[in-house]
Design goal:
single chain; mainly alpha; de novo design (two linked rop proteins)
Length: 139
């Protein structure tokens, strides 16, 4: 059962991608391209951060919105990987591996979005509140 965003497979995959991107951007000469490093670091972090933020909104509609942003950020990372390759910061095999990871995550996010759109469950914020009895509050 999923009780927190850390339990989500897509969040775990996004975290792994973010760590892998950071490993690559920490190496010279890539690390000297401050604009690209900043952009790819922020967009890779945005993938996992938006999954977490959307999950904590406790409603499917908002969660789907944040998952869609995560999916777009993943495509952005994929594009930036190609820019890094064009600037000779990444090898062809590194690009293939990162491109496959980003595409896999894009597909997973798309599948998750589709699942949530079809789901009868609309989120925890729409559950009936539990009745609370306050014995010292006499009316």
């Amino acid at each position: 059962m999923i009780k927190k965003f850390e339990d989500l497979g897509v969040w775990q995959e996004a975290r792994e991608l973010c760590k892998e991107i950071y490993m690559h951007i920490s190496k010279t000469p890539f690390s000297n391209d401050y604009a690209l490093v900043n952009q790819i670091n922020r967009s890779s972090g945005s993938i996992m951060d938006n999954i977490a933020e959307g999950f904590e909104r406790s409603g499917n509609r908002e969660f789907i919105q944040f998952l869609t942003i995560s999916k777009a950020s993943c495509a952005e990372v994929k594009s930036q990987v190609y820019r890094a390759f064009d600037r000779q910061y990444l090898s062809e095999s590194e690009v293939e591996k990162l491109s496959a990871k980003t595409q896999s995550l894009i597909n997973q996010l798309g599948g998750f979005i589709h699942y949530l759109k079809q789901s009868e469950f609309k989120g925890t914020k729409f559950k009936e509140p539990d009745l609370v009895y306050f014995p010292n509050n006499e009316s």
